[in-house]
Amino acid sequence: MPELPEVETIRRGLAEVLPGRRIAKAVASIQKMCVSHLDTCIADAVAGETYDQVRRIGKILIIDLEKVTLLVRLGMTGQLTFRDPKLQDDGQFSVHPVTGLQRAAQHAPDKHTHIVIEHSDGTMLCYRDIRRFGRWIAYPRAEADSAEELRSLGPDPLACPQELEAHLLKALAKTSRAIKTVLLDQSVVCGLGNIYADEALFGCGICPSRPANSLAPAEIASLAAFIPPMLLQSIANRGTTFSDYRDSSGHPGSNQNSLQVYGRYGSACYKCGTVLEKCTLGGRTSTWCPRCQS
Length: 294
What we know:
There is one protein chain. The chain has helices spanning about 5-15, 40-45, 150, 165-175, 180-185, 195-205, 215-235; strands at about 25-30, 35, 50-55, 60-65, 70-75, 80-85, 115-120, 125-130, 135-140, 275-280, 285-290. With about 290 residues, the chain is α+β, with helices and mostly antiparallel strands. It is built from seven helices and eleven strands. It has a five-stranded mixed beta sheet.
């Protein structure tokens, strides 16, 4: 699932090409993926609108038009790419043999492209989602920032890094849940998923199964200091790609080459050589080093 760095990378790409473009029409083939808080469906509401800005909070992409705001949740396999007819489509378009996910740059819409927004200049914004877990939610622009999907989120680590330590000190003291589970709770901190929670806990030497309220203030301070630069480094690497994630141009990220523990259970720890272990917390697999993390 795309996490904060992947969504931010997509946002930055779209912010370069969408503002100022006018929407000619939109087609949504899977209606359950679209939720409208308007008087009409999303496809009809956006026709004739012009893009203003592209924002992000946590894992949610926010596309502001003149009168409408779209909240886009990519789910497990959502891919949002910009298609320019002046550029040649990738002649080697292919999909992952198991997941069916896109493994190419710009390409024509296919059967898994469920939302297509056509612009007056012939370009397109294409949403491809093989598992269909993503959601597009439309609000009147004046109401979007108070939407329930955003109100329920905790602080974004990159939006207010100076406040993160104080927030975590209060939030972690209130729960005995495993610290890994708490970091995945979007109402506590938004944007972290399985990848970056594992990496942050390893970077700070904290075992993922530790009760959150057992962490010392110094350990919480180390987490608050580690998380923002970790996310920024992944953004600099254009996100983490294993099989499905692609940026707005359809290209993979490279941050998977920098991961220390995520998905590496059974392999040697890069730091101490101990074999990495895994455990299941809150239904998610966590990888950790029994020597480096306590």
